[in-house]
Amino acid sequence: GSSIPLGDVKMVDISGKTVSLNDMKMENGLLVNFSCNTCPWVVAWQNRYNTLAEESAKNKIGFITINPNTKNREKIGEGLDAMRNFSKKYGHDFLYTVDEGAKLASAFGATKTPHIYLFNGEGKLVYRGAIDDNARKPKKVKQSYLMDAIASVGNGKEVAIKDTKALGCSIKFNG
Q: pTM of the predicted model, to two decimals?
């Protein structure tokens, strides 16, 4: 039920475009994916990112991926050039932005990559957590938490599972 935090903070996308969460929100909501380039969990879920972006668009839900890793960003392969290369490697067709100083990740309470937040058309949080229950083996997924939540929001229904444990690498905050 929380509102979108720091919705007007501008972030730089890998294309050079500057956007905010409020810019990306669509009629039925916004999906925010805190992600990165170097986490094995993120890499395991990569083949689902474009499908999630497509399903979000079909359901009139904005989609944005945000890289919150700030500690030694360039040295650890999380800089803007590395983000561009990563996106190209996986054929991403969505915005991938830099969270300068991990301001958004902190405001959201994100701790992992990936860490998903889905907001409805009123900008209220309706789902938080993991993409599904099996990062490593897509064919063995039993619970498609996020796809189910996207479909529910798109159809104006209540999300059945609202909170799951985010599985991934810890966000590399400054300090």
A: 0.94
